[in-house]
Amino acid sequence: MALVLYERLCADDRRPSPPCWCARLALAHKGLTPEIQAIKFTESDRVAFSGQTKVPVLVDGQKVIHDSWGIACHLEDDYPETPSLFGGSGGRALTRMFNHWVDHGLLPALAPILVPYMLAAVHPDDRAYYRQTREARFGMSLEQLALRRAVFREALDPVLEPLRQRLAESSFVCGERPAYADYLAFAAFQWARSVCDVDVLAPQDTTLRLWRRCMLDLFGGLARSVEAYDSAG
Amino acid sequence: MALVLYERLCADDRRPSPPCWCARLALAHKGLTPEIQAIKFTESDRVAFSGQTKVPVLVDGQKVIHDSWGIACHLEDDYPETPSLFGGSGGRALTRMFNHWVDHGLLPALAPILVPYMLAAVHPDDRAYYRQTREARFGMSLEQLALRRAVFREALDPVLEPLRQRLAESSFVCGERPAYADYLAFAAFQWARSVCDVDVLAPQDTTLRLWRRCMLDLFGGLARSVEAYDSAG
């Protein structure tokens, strides 16, 4: 059965989108290799068949699934013979809780650092759209946002502490082997290294840096295989 | 076999300690009723037999377990016939991740609001100890901390967002039924209502308020059964 994943395309073939990386890594975890269709911000009509405008969208035979969590649940339920993304019902519930922390804790702490870099990273056709939507969201110009970078980087450090504590006691968030919660958190760092030539992690943050390197090595270096900056792992 | 739980005693028989509530609720989840031994901050010699100075400490027959996470794992492993606290291996790993978020995200956001109230709440014998240790931790007097309360309350709101998102889609953090991750988060609110006559949740925060009420109702109203302020559920 044909698997097609629609994900975000940026300039120079970069693929920074965190939810798209969650879907890519979840598919790899299940041993599945989708055909990739990459679309620009201003090409959302290409996923209109999914009933909404955002990526990722997965087409799996007759099924169309949007939203990275929906895709993860679909893969877990429809491919039960492959390695689990959640590790049981308790794991699914708590991975969803972790997903909300990533979306409403980790990514909001990273976004003001990375969004100004995104102006150069998005496809040239998307720049006007990107500037307009993000400046409206942050209530200031991307240049003003960039001027506050040092403040945002300092504020990121305590937000990372729960993850740091977990990875100080365990190789992966999910235990001895990585699973979906690891992909959720790693996707944020993959966004960073895709667009930003300065590492968001401090040199002395060895716990998080070691885990990030292990994540980059997974699935034959899948996350390393795309265009990104060497500065971050 | 005799079960004894050592927990923190405060003034007027109050029991605000979050990790002690995690242990109490985990025991109730397993259908176990321990004998409670309540000790003041300045009575840590009473748990010296555990090889450390903090509560909770659980004595289960010949076994002595300290630290709320250690106690939860002990109960899960030694009472496998009773309802699970984690819901499988994935659930245990992710509950531990959630535990770190509570300890390094939620509780640090609540602490500067609640610590000034604690001066009145701790046992009179502990007040000098409490003031000294907490003023050293925050680098200011408890009175100065109290003056900034409005700032800390405003900062709490976004920290709660991941929990709010989860509870908007599910009755409990752990799904249809509460389990250890719910106790971890609820214990923070139980601390608040044990010591503070103003609700830390806004009146319009209906999602979190409803969940908190359900948590208070569990196990025959166990968490309601202790001395607390009515203002918060």
Give a verbal description of the structure.
The structure is a homodimer of 233-residue chains. With 233 residues, chain A is of the alpha+beta class. Chain A has two domains: 3-78, Glutaredoxin, CATH 3.40.30.10; 89-221, Glutathione S-transferase Yfyf (Class Pi), Chain A, domain 2, CATH 1.20.1050. Chain A has helices at 18-29, 68-78, 89-121, 127-138, 142-147, 149-159, 161-169, 180-195, 206-221; strands spanning 3-8, 35-39, 57-60, 63-66. Chain A has a four-stranded mixed β-sheet, with helices on one face. In chain A, helix 1 (18-29) links the parallel strand 1 and strand 2. The first copy, chain A, is globular, with a radius of gyration of 17 Å. At the A-B interface, helix 3 and helix 7 of A face helix 3 and helix 7 of B.
Radius of gyration of chain A (Å): 17 Å
How much of the residues of chain A is beta strand, in percent?
Answer: 5-15%
Number of strands of chain A: 4
What string gives the helices and strands of chain A in order? EHEEEHHHHHHHH
Unreliable stretches of chain A (pLDDT < 50, length at least 5) are: none
Q: How does the overall form of chain A come out from the CA principal axes? A: globular
Total domains of chain A? 2
Oligomer: homodimer
Largest interface, with counts of residues having CB < 8 Å to the other chain, equals: A-B, 34 and 34 residues
Q: What strand line-up does the widest sheet of chain A have?
A: 2-1-3-4
**Mean pLDDT over the residues of chain A:** 96
CATH topology of the largest domain in chain A: Glutathione S-transferase Yfyf (Class Pi), Chain A, domain 2
How far is the N terminus from the C terminus of chain A? 35 Å
